[in-house]
Structure formats: C-alpha cells, structure tokens
Write a structure and sequence with these properties.
The chain is an alpha/beta fold. It has 2 domains: 3-259, TIM Barrel (Alpha-Beta Barrel); 269-334, Orthogonal Bundle (Non-ribosomal Peptide Synthetase Peptidyl Carrier Protein, Chain A), CATH 1.10.1200. It is 45% helix and 14% strand. The protein has 15 helices and 11 strands. The strands form 2 sheets. A 9-stranded parallel sheet has the order 4-3-11-10-9-8-7-6-5. It has a two-stranded antiparallel sheet with strand order 1-2. Helix 2 runs antiparallel to helix 12 and helix 10 (224-234) packs across helix 11 (251-259). The longest helix is centred in the last third of the chain and has 19 residues, at 269-287. The protein binds flavin mononucleotide. Residues 28-32, 53-54, 83, 110, 112-113, 152, 182, 190, 194, 218-221, 242-244 line the site of flavin mononucleotide (FMN).
C-alpha cells in the first residue's frame, strides 16, 4: 500500500449495529457544550456524527422537561447519538419509553464521567468498578430495542485498577455494538496524557473476539495530526473529538482533508468569526438572544484563543448581552479597531 492509500484508508464509513455513517470523525458528548447549536455547526463543518451531552436516565423516567430538552435535534441532524447516565439497568428500562420517542440513532451509556456528584450515585466512571452492572444495562437495552447500543468507558478507575478489558468483555458478551474509550483513568480526570496503547490493546482484543464491535478512541485529540496518529498507532475504527472541537469545529473537515491526502488549511479569521456568530444565532433561535449570548461566552473564548487581540475581544464579550455586541466585537477584530464595549 502506498502512503496515499494508507492515509485515505484511515477515513472511512463505519457501520454500528444497523446504522452506517459516511465517516469516522465523531463529536464526543461534552456536558455543557454539545447543545443543538454546537452540534449543528460541527455537522456543517464535517462531523460524521454527534452526541448529546450526558442525559440523566432518571430525569427522563421522571419526565423532567429540562432533561427532555437535551434530546431535541438540530435542523440538520438526521442522526443523533443520545448518551444516558444511570446507576442501574432498572433506570434505563424506566426511561426507555421516553427515550424512544426521540428516535435516537445510537444509545450510549456513560461509564466515564469522573464528577463526584455523578460518581457517588454509582453512575459514570463508578460503573468501571462494576462490569456486571454494565453487562446488565447493555443486555436489557439490547433486549428491548433494535437501536445500536454503545458504551463510553475509561481505562479504569485508577492506575491500580485498569480493567477496560474486563469491562469490554462484559459488554461484548451482552451484545454491545460499539465501545468508545477515553484512555485515561477516572483518577486522572482530564489531566496527564491519554494512554493510546490501551486503545490498541482494546482494538486487538475485539478484533479477535468480536470483530463487528466498533472501537472509537478519545483523549488528547487537539489537532488533525493527533487524530491521524491515533488512528495509525492503534488501528481503531474512528475518533471522537472533544475539547479539540470546542471553538474549533473546523477540526473535522481539516482532519478529513489530512486523512484523504488533500490540502488542509487553517480557516481564515473571517471564517472563524462567521462560524462563531452562526453558532450564536443558532443558539438564539433555540434559547433566545440573552441566554444565547451568555452561554456562547465559553465557546467564544475558545474561538478567539490565540487570535491577535483575542484576549481583548474575550474581555469585551464577558458582558455582551446582544447579538449586536458580538457582531461589533467581530467587526472590530476584522478591521483592527477593537475598542472595549462601553
Ligand atoms: C467539559 C467536558 C464535558 C464532558 N462531558 C462528557 C459527557 O457528558 N459524556 C462523556 O462521555 N464524556 C464527557 N467528557 C469527556 C469527553 O467526551 C472526552 O472523552 C475527554 O474530554 C477526552 O478527550 P480530549 O482529551 O480530546 O478532550 C467531557 C469532557 C469535558 C472536558
């Protein structure tokens, strides 16, 4: 295989259960970030598939309107992965009817959230200590629906309990369709380096035992090159961009270009700002101008990171409450006349 063929073989369609996606560059679930507007913009910029942020299965079972809101699709979202968190399979059964009303393309079980509030209920990464519970959750969901079921796991709870193989074996035994691994332990939270060797080990394991199970990798994907390196070094089927996509939805098209041997260019300043404003306006149509302006600040900080006068623009946006104020800051960044608001 020549190097061009090898490169393009890294970008390909993936079939997960009964769903086929054109590409293997997914947007990871990100609590507080992967709302409809952001997912929409990521799709426009080449994401092959997107997930909701983690959604409480208990909240769905209790018919919480705020929880259900998280399941609504963006206009351009033909497919949508819904990630749920729970501490027991009985919760998923109680929430299933509600969940199915939103027609998820994939149901993903969160087995990786490190946050104490979640972990102390026995959900998120606490499940890494209970592979049997994971098995039961997958088994029951598989029994009651044809929708592909995936799990998103960590490498283990901490360095002395690295048990992703055991967790994978339990899930594979229950018929899981896809496993995504964030290759850090729970104790690492988001610090230190992700251990890509463990991703290779996981893929080698399922290649032998359950070749139809799709393996995705997560952890330290901040550039197109890092995604290419992960795919090459581990042999996994696809990658999920997380922090690397915040304020940078361009990473999808750029990675696709890199993997298919096409020129990949950094988006010019004008494009960055246009896409940022597009995300803001989309957010506005979903949640109103004022809330959108507030919610957009954390995304804007990432869009503006590293730009000349980006820090000053960020400062100006801290108090922006209207689309017009955002537009004014973008205009002044473009024509080099940035002045503080007020
Ligand atoms: C702010 C934030 C929120 C996250 N929310 C979720 C979540 O809701 N569900 C989940 O499975 N992972 C969540 N993650 C983990 C990411 O999906 C991803 O696995 C992790 O950030 C590692 O990838 P990265 O190093 O490329 O960012 C979150 C991470 C961050 C930083």
């Amino acid at each position: 295989m020549n190097s061009q063929e090898k490169t393009s073989s890294l970008y390909h369609s993936v079939t997960i259960g009964n769903m086929t996606f054109d590409g293997n560059l997914f947007l990871a679930p990100l609590a507080g970030y992967t709302d409809r507007a952001f997912r929409s913009v990521c799709i426009e910029n080449g994401a092959s598939f997107t997930y909701t942020e983690m959604v409480s299965a208990e909240g769905l079972a209790r018919e919480s309107a705020n929880t259900e809101k998280l399941l609504i699709r963006a206009r351009n979202e033909e497919f949508l992965g819904v990630q749920i968190f729970m501490n027991d399979s009985s919760v998923s059964m109680r929430s299933l009817e509600k969940l199915l009303k939103y027609n998820p393309s994939i149901i993903d079980i969160n087995c990786g959230c490190p946050v104490p509030k979640v972990v102390k209920t026995g959900a998120g990464s606490a499940l890494m200590n209970e592979p049997e519970k994971i098995r039961k959750m997958v088994e029951e969901l598989k029994e009651h629906t044809d929708i592909p079921i995936s799990i998103k796991i960590r490498k283990g709870w901490n360095e002395t309990s690295v048990n992703f193989r055991e967790v994978a074996a339990a899930a594979v035994g229950a018929g899981v369709d896809m496993i995504t691994m964030h290759a850090r332990t729970r104790s690492m939270y988001y610090s230190g380096s992700a251990d890509w060797d463990s991703l290779k080990e996981l893929k080698d394991y399922t290649r032998k035992t359950a070749p139809s199970v799709i393996i995705f990798g997560s952890g330290d994907l901040f550039t197109p090159q890092s995604a290419k390196d992960m795919l090459e070094q581990t042999g996994i089927d696809g990658v999920m961009f997380a922090r690397g996509a915040i304020g940078n939805p361009f990473i999808f098209e750029r990675t696709k270009a890199l993997l298919t041997g096409k020129p990949q260019e950094e988006p010019p300043l004008e494009t960055r700002l246009q896409v940022m404003l597009r995300q803001l306006h989309l957010m506005g149509t979903y949640s109103g101008e004022q809330l959108a302006c507030r919610e957009m600040r954390k995304h804007a900080a990432s869009y503006l990171k590293g730009l000349p006068h980006g820090a000053r623009a960020k400062q100006a946006l801290v108090q922006a409450t209207t689309f017009h104020e955002y537009e004014r800051v973008c205009d002044s960044l473009l024509n080099g006349t940035l002045i503080p608001l007020n």
